[in-house]
Amino acid sequence: MKSTHLSPVKSYTAVFAALLGLTLTTTAVSLIDLGSLNVVVALTIAIGKALLVLLYFMHVRYSSWLTWVFAGAGFFWFAILITLITSDVLTRN
Amino acid sequence: MAQIFHPSTNTISRLTIFGAITLLLVLVSVLAAINRFLLCNRGRGRPVPSPCSSVTNIMSIADDGIECRYCHTAVEQSSFAGIPSTKVYMNYHSQIWADSAVLEPVRESFRSGQSIPWTRVHSLPGFVYFDHSIHVKKGVGCSTCHGQVAAHLLVGIGLLSALLIKALRGRFSPGYFTPVELTGLYWHFVDIVWIFLFPLLYLVGRHL
Fold it and tell me: For the whole prediction, is pTM greater than 0.80?
């Protein structure tokens, strides 16, 4: 657990600002009726935000390929769970 | 070796503790206000005794020591926990918040004998329901499922507070910071889960 990488505060601030911006965007988009595209847009933005957190806050970007494999496997499993939830939301009524 | 942290970090982290506590209190009260506002305004023009069913109210009722089954009497007989009648509400609200303006629809229903016109505040399809009978019969308590939803948040806040206290006492160094790393990973994991839950729970279907 000894990652020697030290990110500058500037990059954390930038990622934080990006996350806040994307949250505002996804909230704004949810008010517009795009049909089933609403879910697609919301999840695309969510995947983008999750990648930002994974790569920068969780330091995966600066880690070894083994960390990439494990993080990727976890993310893939999480994507399966979200897809199953979405299949319910999309097929209502 | 050069110092990683500027001496001002001490002041900043102390400010963070008190700032976080203040922020948490403000957030909780704002969320409670939003919760009440949303529930009160869903059924425009119709009387909705919404605060009765708001999460904060149910939690405070449970804190007052009133059993869940006092209101949800049907949970032992049917698969549906049941919505209490006006009379059951008045047993409680003739004592507590007896003059509250938001409870006027309840008192009106009690005086006139007319049922309260409920408005659905969730949008589950008709075939989705949860059969409580197996849990009730096997002795699983209500709060086993309904009461612990904030646990992951409390664990995170506890861990972060412990870390902050340890850090202020100088327990971490460039050679030893594993707890910081691990707590960070846990906290960001919760973060990622909520990045997905927020749009799915609160945003999908909002434009309808």
Answer: no
